[in-house]
Design a protein that fits this description.
Helix content is 12%, strand content 35%. With 156 residues, it is mostly beta strands. The strands form two sheets. The chain has a five-stranded antiparallel sheet with strand order 1-8-7-5-6. InterPro entries: DUF1203.
Length: 156
């Protein structure tokens, strides 16, 4: 079974970079500058921000499934220079491959069917295993330590 990892679309976040700090704060967001390598993973480009890059930290509802108790939201980073990720089937971006991940599988009704903690280097094998189950519709990838949403995987 082949999977494809998807980042978030860029268009909803682009206007945020035109806002002043006070306007961002009113939205519960913060403008930031990345201060260390691998510390600010962008959910659009699926790449870590380089030190000195401008980004925004904001709350995002990544699963708004009506009728499911698994509706979820949390903090994400978006790089000002982000370009939407266009990964090939089976590709694991470096920002995921280097992290310990909390991986959660969902069916078509957004009910969780399984979950596990997976080293990023082992993610491809785990995704293939879960997508072998026809009940699994989507898999969400989170950081294991902080729990932040990183990306989604679907069958390719």
């Amino acid at each position: 079974m082949t999977f494809r990892i998807h980042g978030l679309p860029l268009s909803p976040f682009q206007p945020l970079f035109d806002l002043e700090d006070a306007a961002l704060a009113a939205l519960g967001a913060r403008g930031m500058i990345a201060d260390a390598p691998h510390a600010a993973p962008c959910r659009i480009s699926l790449a870590d921000a380089e030190p000195g890059e401008r980004l925004i930290l904001l709350n995002h509802r990544h699963r708004d499934a009506a009728g499911s108790p698994y509706r979820a939201e949390g903090p994400i980073f978006v790089r000002e220079a982000a370009v939407e990720a266009a990964l090939q089937p089976g590709d694991i971006p470096d920002m995921l491959g280097r992290r310990l991940l909390s991986v959660r599988a969902y069916d078509a009704d957004w009910m969780m069917t399984d979950a596990d903690v997976v080293e990023g280097r082992d993610l491809a094998a785990r995704l293939d295993l879960w997508f072998a189950d026809p009940a699994v519709e989507c898999i969400h990838l989170h950081t294991a330590r902080r729990g932040c949403f990183m990306a989604a995987a679907r069958r390719a």
